[in-house]
Amino acid sequence: MALPVFSSTNDPGSAFTDLLRCLNQDPKVSRFSNEFFSYRSANESTSQFSTNELTFRHATTVMAIKFSQGVLIAGDRRATEGYSIAYRNMEKVFPGDRYSAIAIAGTAGPALELVKLFQTQLEHYEKVEGTVLSLEGKANQLSQLVRANLSSAFQGMVVIPLFAGWDCKRKVGRIFTYDVTGGRYEEADYHATGSGGRHARTTIKLGYKEGMSLKGALRLGIQALYEAADEDLGTGGPDALRGIYPTVATVTEKGFEFLEEAEVAGQFETFMVSKSSSGDKS
Amino acid sequence: MTMPFYVAPEQLMKDRAEYAQKGIARAKSLVAVTYLDGILIAAENPSKSLHKISEVYDRIAFAGAGKYNEFDQLRVAGIRHADTKGFAYSREDVNARSLANLYAQYLGEIFTHETKPMEIEILVAELAQANNEDSQDKIYHILYDGTLMDEDHFTVLGGDVPSVAGRLTKAWKQRWSLKEALGSCLYALGGDSRVIPDSELEVAVLSHTNGRRAFKRIVDDELKSLRQNQLKPGKSNKSAKTSPA
C-alpha cells in the first residue's frame, strides 16, 4: 500500500467512495454485480433465472418508531435462502455513527457491505473534515449508496435500508426511508420495511401515539415484530429455546445505544403472558 | 551556453536540511507523553479550527509541527491509508508502525528529490491494545528528511526542542495521572516565565476510557478543571528542595 497522496486538482476530498475509486478499489458491491451479470448472461438460455441455481440470503422485518426522547429502531434475526432458514441470529440493526442507526432489509451480502461502507464513509468524513455531517447529510449519503446498488437490484439483489438518527441541531429524532432507486423519504412518526414490514406497520399504526415513552414504544415495537413474524415466513419471532430475540436500539440525545437482550426478552414474556391470559388467539 | 555551477552533494543536503530546520524551529512546540490511561498530546496553537493534533483511526492519532498545509496533507493521507486498510482487511489490522514507515518514506523522497523539503515534523501515536499484554503505547516521531524515531515515553516536536525536552525530562514520571502529565507538559511548553492561556492550547488524548475510538479533544470546562490548582513542577521541585534545609 502506498501513501494515498493526490494532487490538489485530483483530490477525492472527504468522500470515501470517491477515494476507493481513485485507488481503483471500487466497492465490492459493484464488482460483485458485474461478475453476477456475466454469469447470468452466460446462462441466458434458461429464460427465467431459477432460484435453485443461485440463492441469496434475505433479511426481513426492520422498523423504527419515534418516542419522546428520540427514535427506537428494531429488527428480527432471521435470514432465509429460498424457502430455508439460513441463519437464526443475524444482526440487521447497526450504528451508523454516534448519533445514527441503520437497519437493513433485502439481500444480506450487499446489505452488510452497504452498512460497512456507510459506517466507514461517515467516520471518514468526520475525521478528514474535522466536523460531523448533519443528519440530513448522512441521509443523503445513504441515498447515493443505495442508488449505486441499482444495477444489482435489477438482478434481484435488492437492498433497502432504514435510517434513523438524532438531529443534533434541531434536537429531534428523525426517520428516513428509501426506495430501490435511492429515493429518500422522511417519515413523520414510524416506518417498517422488509417482507414483514406491512404487518409491522399496521400493528404500529393501531397503537401509535405521538410523544410516547420509551417503554410504550418498546412494547409497541415488540408487538409489531411478533405480528410480522406471525404472518410472514421470512420474519423470525422470539426464540426462547435458543435465547434469540430481536435486536432493539435507541438513538437519543445520548447517542446510539443497544437495548440489553434481557430487557427485550422480558418485554416479550410480558407481551405473551398478557396475550394468552386475555384469551386472544388472533 | 552557461554551465550550471557544481554543488557538492554534501553541501546540497546540508542546505536543504538547514532550510527545513529553520522553518521547524520557527514553529511553536508540541509535546506527547504517555500517562496512566494512554497518551497525551499538547500543543501551543492560537487557532481553534486549524488543528495540529487529530484522529487517524481507532487507537491512532496524528500531530504535526511546522508548515500547516504540508502536515495537513499528510494527516489526510494517513486517514485515507487507515480507512482503506481497515475497510479492505479488518479494523485490528490497522497499525501505526506501517503508517509511520509510509510517512518516513514519503518525507525521505521529498527531501532528496524535490527542490524544497517539507518544513515539518510529524508524530504518529498509537494506544496499546486493551487486554493484550504484549501491545504497548507507541510514539513515532518523523523528521523532515524521513528519519523515523521510536520514542519510549515522550517526544517534543518543533520550536525550541532542547529546552522544552529538558524541562519535560526533569518532570517526567512513570504512570502519572492525566492532571500531572498535563501540568508538566504545559510547564515544559511555557517555561518558567510564561503561562499559556487556555485559548491558545490544543490538548487531546488517546485513552482506554474512551471506547473504540480512543481519541478525544480536551477542551473548555474539562481543560479548565484539569488546569485548576496546578503547581508548576519546576516550582514545586524547588520548594521541596528548600523545605528540609
Description:
The complex is a heterodimer of chains A (282) and B (245). Chain A is built from eight helices and 13 strands. Chain A has 282 residues and is α+β, with helices and mostly antiparallel strands. Mean pLDDT of chain A is 89; it is low at 44-52. In chain A, strands 1, 4, 5, 6, 7, 8, 9 and 10 form an eight-stranded antiparallel β-sheet that branches. In chain A, strands 11-2-3-12-13 form a five-stranded antiparallel β-sheet, with helices on one face. With 245 residues, chain B is α+β, with helices and mostly antiparallel strands. Chain B contains seven helices and ten strands. Chain B has helices at 9-26, 68-88, 96-113, 161-171, 178-190, 220-227, 233-242; strands at residues 30-35, 38-44, 53-57, 60-66, 120-126, 138-142, 148-151, 154-157, 201-207, 215-218. The N and C termini of chain B lie far apart (79 Å). Residues 236-245 of chain B have low confidence and may be disordered. The interface between A and B is medium-sized, with 18 and 24 residues.
Strand segment count of chain A: 13
Order of helices and strands of chain A: HHEEEEEEEHHHEEEEHHEEH
**Largest Cβ-defined interface:** A-B, 18 and 24 residues
Number of strands of chain B: 10
β-sheet strand percentage of chain A: 15-25%
Compute the gyration radius of chain A: what is it? 20 Å
Q: How widely separated are the two ends of chain B? A: 79 Å
| Poorly predicted ranges of chain B | 236-245
Topology:
The complex is a heterodimer of chains A (282) and B (245).
Chain A: H1 16-22, H2 28-42, E1 57-59, E2 62-67, E3 70-75, E4 79-81, E5 84-87, E6 93-97, E7 100-107, H3 108-129, H4 135-148, H5 150-154, E8 159-167, E9 172-178, E10 184-187, E11 190-193, H6 197-207, H7 214-231, E12 247-252, E13 255-258, H8 261-277
Antiparallel strand pairs in A: 1-4, 1-7, 2-3, 2-11, 3-12, 4-5, 6-7, 7-8, 8-9, 9-10, 12-13
Helix pairs in contact in A: 3-4, 6-7, 7-8
Chain B: H1 9-26, E1 30-35, E2 38-44, E3 53-57, E4 60-66, H2 68-88, H3 96-113, E5 120-126, E6 138-142, E7 148-151, E8 154-157, H4 161-171, H5 178-190, E9 201-207, E10 215-218, H6 220-227, H7 233-242
Antiparallel strand pairs in B: 1-2, 1-8, 2-9, 3-4, 4-5, 5-6, 6-7, 9-10
